[in-house]
Amino acid sequence: RLGVLHVGQRIEEQADFEKIYKNAWADNANACAKQYAGTGALKTDYTRQWGLIMDGWNSLIRYYKNNFSDGFRQDAIDLFLGNYSVDEVEPASPLHVKKDWKFLALPIIMVVAFSMCIICLLMAGDTWTETLAYVLFWGSASFGTFAIILYNGKDFVDAPKLVQKEKID
């Protein structure tokens, strides 16, 4: 009806058009997803060559952003929509929360311990008992710090800091 195809032509026979259409569709999906979730769209593996790899990468980035660095986004939305109103009498900002030492130290310790465990596996010592001892030490150190992070998980999450107004029914 729009005159894109001539009479008798079939969409399945137009490989160039199909490629352009699918790329435009994927580009639109990426733009919408970046606004909403902060990363490119998932499930673009049907239209892109590296789509499956990018899906995995975008999923990891989304998980990190949603849990550790997106609280400010919800705070900004709450301010913009009027779900939170600033109290001029209150001197302290609810956005400023002092972080404890564990927020920086524990992830660094876990990454270093896990890296050392992998290095000990790749660079074997003189004897297998020596290698096993190093791997067990660094493995238990990385597992221990991971367990501490999981136990204190709610403290590591970047939750919105502004309290929403009571909804009036």
From TrEMBL:
Keywords: Membrane, Transmembrane, Transmembrane helix. The chain crosses the membrane at residues 103-125, 131-151. GO terms for cellular component: endoplasmic reticulum. GO terms for molecular function: phosphatidylinositol-4-phosphate phosphatase activity. One of its GO terms (biological process) is phosphatidylinositol dephosphorylation. The keyword Transmembrane applies. This is SAC1 phosphatase. It comes from Crypturellus soui. The gene is Sacm1l_0.
